[in-house]
Amino acid sequence: MADIASVSRTDLTQRRKRLRRQRRVKIIQTIWQTMAVSGLAGTLLWGAIQPIWVLKTDKSIEISGNKLLTDEAVRSRIGLSYPQSMWKIQPSQIASSLQKQPAIAHANVTRRLLPPGLIVEVEERIPVAILQRSQLVNPQARSENREEASGKTVEKTLGFIDAKGILIPIESYGSANISSLKTKAKLPNLKVIGSPEQYREYWKQVYQTLSHSSLKITEIDWRDPSNLILKTELGKVHLGTPNSQLPEKIKVLMQMRQLPTEVNPNRMEYIDLKNPDTPMIQVLDSTNALKKQRFNP
């Protein structure tokens, strides 16, 4: 019995020593882990505040997805001052700011760590028509010489419009003009003349209806809000005020494709579809007097 008690006390003593040794090892490991984490955090903090993590110029901003917009035009709308700390830049705020620009439908901005910079991906609005407005070449000539001033108008390009009716001013593309933009991407052939305020309310309905037509339409004249005028392959078409009858009017116009074979295009002034139930044609008779005649598609 004495031997058993002696062995038990020896085992207990050794077990206590092992436990104390394990606790010391764990304490040392914890200290080293804490020092390592603190050192890593300090290194990262030190590295983060170094001058290398700074955007020195806008050339550090990489632009992609743009076709009509130049890289410079996109960079100028980011609104950063330089040099700028990478960690003070808010990519989501920059993306939101870019999406407020008329020419940009969507933007995504991310940081690039090596080399320090920003990656900006943009999705441009797609122009479906060129916006123009008539203006006098010399407005003062009106009071000096009425005859000379009459007809002295030019179509000034204001910009573009997309399928949703959003106006994209030409200034949105920086210093670019129509000629230079044509070298970058295919521009729409459709022209719209008039003030955007006059047709913005009806644009989506009108464009959707016309875009579904196989008839070639090159111009929409909206200078008179009460009379929408189209320039088509059949000639000029007067549609009157845009309303729910517009699809029906375009359908009647499609049925008039044989018109050039029945009426001399040189004698026809325009097609009157203000009332789609009674399509009319304004023509010049043998005495060059204007007269209207009904046309049955």
Explain this structure to me?
This protein is of the alpha/beta class. It has 3 domains: 15-43; 54-124, Ubiquitin-like (UB roll) (Roll); 127-294, Rossmann fold (3-Layer(aba) Sandwich), CATH 3.40.50. The chain has helices at 2-48, 71-76, 91-99, 141-144, 146-149, 178-182, 196-199, 203-211, 246-254, 259-262; strands at residues 54-55, 61-64, 84-85, 104-112, 117-124, 127-136, 153-162, 167-169, 191-193, 217-221, 229-232, 235-238, 268-272, 280-284, 290-294. The strands form 3 sheets. Strands 8-7-6-9-10-11-12-13-14-15 form a 10-stranded mixed sheet, with no helix packed on it. Strands 2-5-4 form a 3-stranded mixed sheet. Strands 1-3 form a two-stranded antiparallel sheet. The longest helix has 47 residues, at 2-48. It is elongated and about 135 Å long. Mean pLDDT is 84; it is low at 142-149.
Key attributes of the depicted protein:
15 strands; Rossmann fold; 3 domains; 3-stranded mixed beta sheet; alpha/beta; 297 residues; Ubiquitin-like (UB roll)
Number of strands: 15
- The CATH architecture designation of the largest domain is 3-Layer(aba) Sandwich
Work out the count of structural domains.
3
Please give the order of strands in the largest beta sheet. Answer: 8-7-6-9-10-11-12-13-14-15
Stretches where pLDDT falls below 50 for ≥5 residues?
Answer: 142-149
Largest sheet: 10 strands, mixed
Helix/strand-derived class? alpha/beta
Q: Report the CATH topology name of the largest domain.
A: Rossmann fold
Q: What's the oligomerization state?
A: single chain
How confident is the prediction overall: mean pLDDT?
A: 84
Which bin fits the share of residues in helices? 25-40%
Order of helices and strands: HEEHEHEEEHHEEHEHHEEEHHEEE
